[in-house]
Amino acid sequence: MNYIKDTLSEKELNFLLEQLDTTKVLTGEELNPFKKAHPYVLNNQSGLYPSTFTVYDTTNETLNNWIFNKFSKNELVESIYSMEYGKEAFSKKHKDYLRKVCIILLNDDFDGGRFLIEDNDINLNNLGGYVILDGQKYEHEVTKITRGLRKVLVIFFKSKENLL
Question: How far apart (Å, rounded) are the C-alpha atoms in residues 42 and 131?
Fold first, then answer.
């Protein structure tokens, strides 16, 4: 199993959150291109059951450049989502179609919600913790939340050769 796991510094996490606060949240018809690129997620057929799902506009160059330099110098940012998992919410085992993915934990005040890759708990439970994996190669899931709210940022990447 091949993945990268690390933790953002407090400064990096604060920068990321500040950038997200200034990034437009997509709504209504603005989501249509993403429904084609991520049909299962946005059409509720994925086996992902977050309580809240937010799609961010990917035109924030400052944020995109930071993500590119921090997480993936070979691929471009395809899409950025935040997901909140409340009590009883979870994500079934799944693979992400043709995508490298980075998942960043935005809080740590919850119980349950373990992140598993190929049935292995990778202990992604610290604020700012992140994992980068080949989402098409490895099955991954989030176990049920038993207390609190689990917030994550999910970033999908695309190769420069496979531009939409």
Answer: 22
Nearest alpha carbon to residue 128 among 41, 17, 32, 47: 17
Residue 6 and residue 29: Cα distance in Å, rounded?
36
Neighbours of 146 (CB within 10 A): 11
**Tens of pLDDT along 78-122?**
889 898 999 998 888 888 876 789 999 999 999 999 999 999 999
Using a 10 angstrom Cβ sphere, with 0-12 exposed, 13-18 middle and 19 or more buried, the burial of residue 159 is middle
Tell me the two tokens of residue 87. Answer: 């009590």
Contact 83, 152 (CB under 8 A): yes
Question: Could you tell me the domains of the chain?
Answer: 3-159 (2.60.120.620)
| 53: region left, alpha or beta (phi > 0 left; psi from -120 to 50 alpha) | beta
Using only C-alpha atoms, the chain has a radius of gyration, in whole angstroms, of 15
Mean pLDDT of the region 52-80? 90
Residue 161 clears pLDDT 70, i.e. is over it: no
